[in-house]
Every structure is written in C-alpha cells, then in structure tokens.
Amino acid sequence: DGTVIDSGEAIYKTVNEVRDELKLPPLDKEFIIKAINEPGRNLALEFYGIDTPSRSLKEGFEEKFKKFYDECASTYEGAKELLQKCRDAHYKVVLASNAPHDTLEKILKKNEIYELFDEVIGASKEIPQKPDPAMLHLAVSKTKANKAIFIG
Hints:
- There is one protein chain.
- By secondary structure, the protein is mainly alpha-helical.
- It is about 50% helix and about 10% strand.
- The chain contains seven helices and four strands; from the N terminus they run βααααβαβαβα.
- The chain has helices at about 10-20, 30-35, 45-50, 55-70, 80-90, 100-110, 135-145; strands at about 5, 75, 95-100, 120-125.
- The strands form two sheets. The protein has a two-stranded antiparallel ribbon. A two-stranded parallel ribbon has the order 3-4.
- The protein is globular and about 50 Å long.
C-alpha cells in the first residue's frame, strides 16, 4: 500500500463508514491520507475521538477495510511497467508489505502483478510489521541477495 497499490480510496471509505456508525461527520479524503502517512500520529484519536480503540472497533475496521480494499485498491500508474523492467533486468523483486500476508496474493492477482514478484511477504504472527526489519531480512534471505534496494 502506498508504493505499488493505491489503497487511499479504501482507507477513506473505511474511516468514514466507521465514523458514520459512531455518529461522527465524514472527514476529507486529503486529511485522512495525509494522517495515515505521518508516523507517530494517534489515528484513533484523530479519526474517532478515542485514545485507544476497542477490539471490536479494530475488528470492524479490518472487516470494512477488506471489503473496500477488494473494491477500490488498484496498481499505481507506471508500477507494473517498473516491476516488469526490474524482472527483465533479472533483478529479484520482493513485495514486503505491512498488510496481512493472507490478503496479498488475492489483491496482487486482481491487479495482474502477482507474477512479477519472486517473493511476497506480508505481516503475520511470525513476521512483524515494518519498521521492524524482519521481513526485509527475510526477503534478502529468500532471494539469496548480497545487495538490496528498498523502495517505499
């Protein structure tokens, strides 16, 4: 998300659907996108007026997000061509995403780019989200690379 797949519309719709359930007015898309891309912000407080979201709020968000992600997420313009150029140059290409690992194959296939990756690594119970370097180390290990470039 944010590098290869544009999920901004899905996030925007999800946040505002949750806000609607909480009887809060909608937020502007630009505000939401800016907020999610700035580390250190308390998004629950900014989006919903609560300091710490409940488990049910988190689960409801995830359920809605998966629905909107399937409907709205799309490959950024030029991303597929760049991935193909990397493949043509015989680079190993790995997707390392904070999205749940079990959701990645479906969305990448839907956007017709799954086959352009040598490895697809997502967050799971065993693999923590970035900025923890675990999935990046795993990508290097799986491809047996001696040098890597991270694009994010």
